[in-house]
From TrEMBL:
Gene3D superfamilies: Ribonuclease Inhibitor. The keyword Transmembrane does not apply. PANTHER family: LEUCINE RICH REPEAT FAMILY PROTEIN, LRRCT DOMAIN-CONTAINING PROTEIN. This is Uncharacterized protein. Keywords: Leucine-rich repeat, Repeat. The keyword Repeat applies.
Amino acid sequence: MPVIPMRSKANRFHVLCAKHIESEESLATVMFEEARRLVIEHSNIPTFSEILFHNLPDVEAITLKGGNITTIIFSSDTLSTLRIDKTGLQHLNITPGPNHSLNTLLINRNFITTLPKSIRYLYALSILDLSQNRIEYINLNWFQQMENLLVLDLSWNHIAQMDASSELRLGRLKSFFVSYNHLSQIPWFPIGFPKLERIRLSDNYWNCPWVASVRKQIWDRRIRLFDSDSACSEHSEGGLCCYDRVPVDVPARYELIEIEFQEQADGVGLEFKKVTSEPPPLMMAEQSDAGSERRTCDELRERVRGLKREKLALVKEKSEMEQQYSKKVAAMQETLRSVREDLEAAEQEVTRYRYKERMDLIERTAKINVETGAIGVS
């Protein structure tokens, strides 16, 4: 294959549509002159190895989108951003050893079931988004040494268990999203999250006593819950469905969100396509008889319709409030203008009064002087 030079643009951004690149050797024939941001689309390289990362020493951000890249072996001391979107990724390996360069790692819409323990070496991470995969287990201590971690998104996975030691402290974490998993509780939550501000917890199988125990802590610390469960087959505790027994045989659940990149004159645009979401019914240990309760598709559709109605009502209410606010502002401005006019008129009246008093004083003084002069002459 001939060498393919790719000239850098002013912003040093390259998009490579690599449908015919099927090996590391063929990708090595592509030259990226002074590239800083690289997007590789539709590549069929089975393994994106550490060799490829080392061959891109000047690249600061890589996006792998679409295609078929089932294995990634990450090793780079210069890369700051890595996004892996819908490549069919199944195996993620991270070379052991401290990494102080990568601060953003986004792996979405793939098939990862386990995380390598070596993820703990990504010390510089501030954003870690692993949503929409098939991860089953998380040990929160893996993220303990990521002192700059601000966002951790584990939503839309198969996580049924989280472990953590009593020493867990995610010191700077502000956003923690675990909605649409199979969790019944989170260890040392929210004690191990001292700076937490935002959470997403909906569509799990929370244990009722656990929810009751953390509700007050969430409220006292003013942590904002950005979602809630609108329909529960058993109990509802503070907007979250909870259960007396831990669910078993939980089926997979997915949300497919199509996000397409479009190259534009001034950079890259995002196009959001149709979102499909239909979690299957909750499976409990005692659901062997056909008469037991379960979440149906009709209930979910009704929930969506209800949310749409609530959205329309909120939009209408917002419009009305904006109109009322505009009217109040206009009225206040009119009142302020009137007060200013009255103040100016009063100031003018005071000025005229003081001028008249001064003139009267001058006139009286002159009259007294005349009278005094006349007396002196006589």
